[in-house]
C-alpha cells in the first residue's frame, strides 16, 4: 500500500513540475527589456506647387506631336519620276 501511495505522489510531483515548467517557459522567452513602440513620423502636408503646373505636360505633348508631323516625309509620291535627258 505504501508503494502505491509513494508512486502516486511521485507522479503528481512529476506532473506538477512539468506543468510549472511548461507555464513558465513563455515568461522567459524574448528580452527582459520593456517594449517601447517606435515614434511615428510627423507628416507635414504642404500646399500644391501652383495652379499653372497643369499645362506643362499637355504643352510638351503638343510640341512633340508637332515635331513628329513636321519631320514626317509624307508629301512626295512613292515612285520616283524619271526626268528626260
Overview of this protein structure:
- This protein has 85 residues and is mainly alpha-helical.
- Helices cover 46% and strands 0% of the residues.
- The protein has 2 helices and no strands.
- The radius of gyration is 44 Å and the shape is elongated.
- The model has no long low-confidence stretch (mean pLDDT 76).
Global morphology = elongated
Strand percentage lies at under 5%
Distance between the termini: 137 Å
Task: Sketch the major β-sheet.
Answer: none
* Rg measurement, Å: 44 Å
Low-confidence stretches: none
Keywords:
single chain, about 80 residues, mainly alpha, 2 helices, about 45% helix, elongated
Describe the structure concisely.
The protein is mostly helical and 85 residues long. The chain contains 2 helices and no strands. It has helices spanning 2-24, 56-71.
Summarize the topology.
Blueprint: H1 2-24, H2 56-71
Amino acid at each position: 500500500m505504501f508503494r502505491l501511495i509513494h508512486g502516486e505522489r511521485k507522479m503528481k510531483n512529476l506532473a506538477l513540475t512539468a506543468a510549472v515548467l511548461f507555464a513558465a517557459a513563455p515568461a522567459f522567452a524574448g528580452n527582459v527589456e520593456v517594449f517601447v513602440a517606435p515614434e511615428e513620423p510627423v507628416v507635414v502636408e504642404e500646399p500644391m506647387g501652383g495652379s499653372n503646373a497643369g499645362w506643362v505636360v499637355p504643352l510638351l505633348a503638343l510640341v512633340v506631336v508637332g515635331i513628329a508631323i513636321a519631320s514626317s516625309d509624307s508629301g512626295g509620291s512613292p515612285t520616283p519620276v524619271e526626268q528626260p535627258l
